Amino acid sequence: MESHMLAPIVLFVYNRPTHTLQTLEALANNSLAKDSILYIYADGAKTNANVETIKRIEETKDIIKQKQWCKEVHIIESEENKGLANSIVEGVTDIVNKYGKIIVLEDDIVTSPGFLKYMNDALDLYENKDRVMHISGFVPVTSGADKLPETYFLRFMSCWGWATWKKDWSELILDTDFLYKTIPHQKDYSAFNLEGATNMFSQIEANHNGTLKTWAIKWYSTIFLKKGLCLYPRYSVVDNVGIDGSGENSGNAQDLFKVILAQSVEVKPIKIEENLYAKEYLKRFYIYGRDSSFRKRLIRSVKKTFLFKVYKKLRYQ
């Protein structure tokens, strides 16, 4: 399809009717919703699902059929339970192969009114830029957010409201054994874990040993190995309302991930390289949380130095 056409939106839902309704209502309030195509993938119940879970699944299916949320709405219901990871990989692959580009949401991602415009503008602008592989919508908040540029690039990937192109998604590496053996041997391996600010590789390990089955870490790993970049806005254009303990792979972290929601983002050409201030900003968030001010960092540094001195003294007594 031609690049100026709007990207299709894909939404994945399961058994959270309240979250799904919030997501759809916010999406319908987007300025481009009336011109967009929406595909909704509704997963089926697990074989051992209890009555309450089955009820929530049916309620979710009723909600997605309530309104004409976008110009066109296509609903794909699964009779069996595929699981979130399989559903996303299969659904994204089918739609992006058909249209060449895609915007992806899950059932707990509430978008700002300018979300679709930001995503479509970015998809059009960076479509033929080799290093740009992913458009991110979510930005956490910590000290210094106001100093971020309007848009910028990071090697880090966020899957809470995102977009990509067929040419890049076709590179997706699903072989966990390959990722487990390959990533630690990269010269820039420290960048994979944000130079120690977070432990992304633990997700690869968990997928490798079978204690976790997720898709996003594989997409992030693909971008990392391909030296790809992800575009971000200064302030988030999505809010994750599902980190309340109700999701398959998320705990309760609502306070930590509260956002400043941007109503719109101006997408202009920028230098295609990682923004160093944005990288340090993200590192500070993962280390210090919402308050990463100089005072907070100084206090933590003093405490660490003091505790280290006490440890040395006790050790050699």
Describe the model.
With 317 residues, the chain is an alpha/beta fold. The protein has helices spanning 17-28, 51-64, 84-99, 115-125, 166-169, 176-182, 189-192, 201-209, 216-225, 276-288, 294-315, and strands at residues 9-13, 37-42, 72-77, 101-106, 109-111, 132-136, 151-154, 162-165, 229-233, 238-240. 38% of the residues lie in helices and 15% in strands. α1 (17-28) runs parallel beside α2 (51-64) and α6 (176-182) packs across α8 (201-209).
Keywords:
317 residues, alpha/beta
Describe the structure concisely for a colleague.
The chain has 317 residues and is of the alpha/beta class. The chain has eleven helices and ten strands. Helix 1 (17-28) runs parallel beside helix 2 (51-64) and helix 6 crosses helix 8.
Topology:
Blueprint: E1 9-13, H1 17-28, E2 37-42, H2 51-64, E3 72-77, H3 84-99, E4 101-106, E5 109-111, H4 115-125, E6 132-136, E7 151-154, E8 162-165, H5 166-169, H6 176-182, H7 189-192, H8 201-209, H9 216-225, E9 229-233, E10 238-240, H10 276-288, H11 294-315
Parallel strand pairs: 1-2, 1-4, 2-3, 6-9
Antiparallel strand pairs: 4-8, 5-10, 6-8, 7-9
Helix pairs in contact: 1-2, 6-8
- Report the order of strands and helices: EHEHEHEEHEEEHHHHHEEHH
Q: Share of helix among residues?
A: 25-40%
Radius of gyration: 21 Å
Largest sheet, described in full?
Answer: 8 strands, mixed
Low-pLDDT residue spans: none
Task: Output the structural class.
Answer: alpha/beta
SS elements, strand count: 10
- Number of DSSP helices? 11
Strand share of the residues?
Answer: 5-15%
Strand order of the biggest β-sheet: 3-2-1-4-8-6-9-7
Intertermini distance: 73 Å
Mean pLDDT: 92
> What's the shape?
globular
